[in-house]
Amino acid sequence: MAIFRGITAEEEAASGLMWCLRELEYVGASYLMPRNHVHKHAAIPFLRIIGLFFGQTFDKTLKEYGLHIKDEDGQRRLMLAFPIKVAGEDTWAYPIPPLNFGVSVAGTGLPPSYATQISAYVTAKGANSIKSYLKKEANLRNEILYAGPDGYPQVPELKAEFIQEKTSHVLTLLQTYLLIQPYPERQPYVQDALTAFLSVVGAIGSQGGASNEV
User: Fold this and answer.
1) Mean pLDDT highest for which of 9-23, 44-58, 189-203?
2) Which among 106, 114, 129 has a CA at the least distance from the CA of 56?
3) Helix, strand or coil for residue 83?
């Protein structure tokens, strides 16, 4: 039950983020499937891939940033914070909206596809492709819920690391939601990231197995 609740907590947080993008009418958001297990389980890997991209691209120029809670327009909001110097003193800069920027590939002007980072992520996970990896992750909940040819599912051990990992995933998804939901305008980086995300899950669709909507 603890494993199932950990999995579904992450799924529901991912669903909330997808509903947010649909409600704000980001281009292509209508193709998101908040009840699709593959789409839900693709959210955290994609955010990890984005993190890998920024870590590799800005390793020398953007070594530090923070997430701060500040008052903005009479509301407490989660903000991205970047260290800067003003009149020789260290302080923080807060972009408003926080993801109101764009990133493009040098020489093309196009947003990144993250193909290199996706390949590295898949290799690190020991998978053959992002498609097969996501399908396997999405099917885990079914493996602990339903009997198979070998009988009823059994969990010999629940490691504390599993619950800690799922807690971290939920917090990451909630933080992402809070950087997007308060702002009615379409933030450029959110739009570009959504387009890339759809290209990752687009070949999967809802074709059978664990990816069916329930």
Assistant:
1) 9-23
2) 114
3) strand
Percent of the chain with pLDDT over 90: 45
DSSP strands (E only) in the chain: 66-72, 75-86, 89-93
Confidence of residue 214 (pLDDT cuts 50, 70, 90): very low
Provide the 10 A C-beta neighbour count for residue 89.
7
Give the per-residue pLDDT at 208. 35
| Across 106-124, average pLDDT | 88
Dihedral class, residue 107 (left if φ above 0, else alpha if ψ from -120 to 50, else beta): left
How many residues can be counted in the chain? 214
Note the pLDDT tens digit of each residue in 126-173: 988 888 888 888 887 777 777 677 777 777 777 889 899 999 999 999
Q: Enumerate residues 6+ apart whose C-beta is below 8 A from 32.
A: 18, 21, 22, 39, 194, 198
The rounded distance, in Å, linking the Cα atoms of 136 and 7 is 13
Q: Where are the domains of the chain?
A: 2-59+113-206
Query: What b/e sequence results for 164-176 when a residue is b if at least 16 CB atoms lie within 10 Å of its CB, and e otherwise?
Result: eebeebbebbeeb
Q: Helices 115-124 and 37-57: crossing angle, nearest 10°?
A: 110
C-alpha–C-alpha distance, residues 161 and 73, integer Å: 39
Q: Which of 38, 1, 35, 5 is nearest to 18 (CA)?
A: 35
Q: State the pTM of this model.
A: 0.84
Report d(CA 41, CA 52) in Å as an integer.
18
